[in-house]
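Why do we bother with holo predictions? Because pocket geometry can differ from the apo form. Keep that in mind while you read this record for magnesium ion.
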Amino acid sequence: MKRKLFCLAFTAILFATPVAAQRLPNVVIIFIDDMGYADIGPFGAKGYKTPNLDRMAKEGIRFTSFYAAQGVCSASRAALLTGTYSNRIGIHGALDHRAKHGISDNEVTIAQMLKTKGYATAIYGKWHLGHHPQFLPTRHGFDEYLGLPYSNDMWPNHPEAKPGTYPPLPLFENDKVVQVMPDQSQLTRAYTERAVSFIERNKDKPFFLYVPHTMVHVPLFVGEKFKGSAKTGLYGDVVQEVDWSVGEILKTIKKQGLDKDTLVIFTSDNGPWLSYGEHAGSSGPLREGKGTAWEGGVRVPFIARWPGKIPAGRTTREPAMTIDLLPTIGRLANAELPKHKIDGLDIWPLLQGEAKAKNPHDAYFFYYNTNELQAVRSGKWKLIFPHTYRTLGNQPKAKDGIPAKYTNVKSGLELYDLESDMGEKTNVADKHPDVVKRLEALAEQAREDMGDSLTKRVGKGVREPGRLVE
Ligand code: MG
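The structure, written out:
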């Protein structure tokens, strides 16, 4: 009897002793503004060096068909942070200081999702989802914010700005303007220093750090230390400073002993702004750039690193998109996903580099302007719908940050095989009418759901953005 009682007591103690809780992973997303597909070493950059990103790629996985949801800043950011096509939630184009709308309180950002699991959260960089107090990051899940509320070219000193067009550019700290920017050469360093401090301060609990750098968006600015560091000019200098920033963040994670607890993602919000010539990046082999649904506008460099969880030195050609990050991170943090419809799907098997992992979507939809469904990708196929897009044609490269003028031209109904033709050079629509039909049918579902201004359709599943309460 005594023995039995002892056993019972022992069992009770055993079950009452908490198992050391497994730490939830830290998540870091470094999101570069207007960086082209071929702008970093692991994606073929020439004329300057990105040693930290080279190392990050060697230690992690590269996605060679990774997409921003749209080829423009605000829309792209809305999609990344909510796991939802930005046109579904009423965010189109790029919001400036005149915008009276922004991200809705009804949407759930990655930061808000992770707050439910006790994460510390911070954003250092460009927000661009509304600059009025109700839209600022601190109202959408972030504990800390330092950065610009919209693009760095939306200011009076920009060479293209007409007098009186823009007010001075405000730098926000949480919900207050702390500085009116005289120039922007300190921004990359300032964001990086905050990021390093945030990691150090939060090393003992899970954190979400979002670093949407203001660079490499024009007008270009670089810190003193990197001025003239690239042989190829200012653009290379600026990329090298961003690479330094990535290095500082990775170094801090390692120093704090958090390498095996931290998923780090590096990518871009859209392709290069090609009209800026020498002040723009490169989409390499891809067609066109920012502001289009061609591959150069939406396909971006992507690296993910998490030692022990993501095998080193992998590359995948499977497509993926920023909308997939929220559900993937939700799974990793064991967090409940938003109750409303989101568009992203969990791509953890792909990130983990599983040999047979496939993209879980039937298709990705590429919207641009105010809700024009311009293209759809399914598997290796991309169907372009007749629309007007901007192109530079064969103009010489613009110099000194003064942009060249785009010409608007029209596309037809065009089909491309991205596996053999990533540059979208040969339209094979005539050869594959069955594929055209299948992708048309997928697009039709998207039109029903999210609308399409090219075919004058109103979607049943769209939601309103946040409206300014005055
Ligand atoms: Mg951008």
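Residues 234-255 form the longest helix (22 residues).
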